[in-house]
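Kindly go through the following sequence and its backbone structure tokens. Advise at your convenience whether the structure tokens fit the sequence:

___
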Amino acid sequence: MLILRTAAPVAFGAKLKRLRISIPGLGTTSYPLIMAQKKGYFQAEGYDVELMPMAGRLAVKTPMTGEVNLTSAGTLVATMQRAKLRMVMRVLRQLLYDLVAAPEIKRVEDLHDKKIAVADRGSVTFMVARATLMPMD
């Protein structure tokens, strides 16, 4: 959960600090931010937050270009590629993925030589699928 705290409650009519946050569409990491905005939590703490839904890869790049202040997109791949990013909070303790397959697939090994769909080549989904399906020697 993202927690922003000011020294004192925001005075009525005080100028709000503008924050732009890129979010990778609707998903687990976006819901807390969307709810905080809808409930007025950001505004109560002195922030005028604009949530900007966009594709995951783009959402990760926008803080590096200065187009947004923060992102809720998974930055694992970008960090692995030595992007200059700093994690200030974490929404999930572990990655949440389901492997959905045709009824005849009973085990991960049954996927050998099958095509696997992922969100985007090089994405976290791609990395998780690749690590899961790599043969263990």
Summary: The helical segments are 31-38, 41-44, 56-65, 76-80, 124-133. Residues 56-65 form the longest helix (10 residues). Residues 97-137 form one domain. Strands lie at 17-23, 47-53, 70-71.
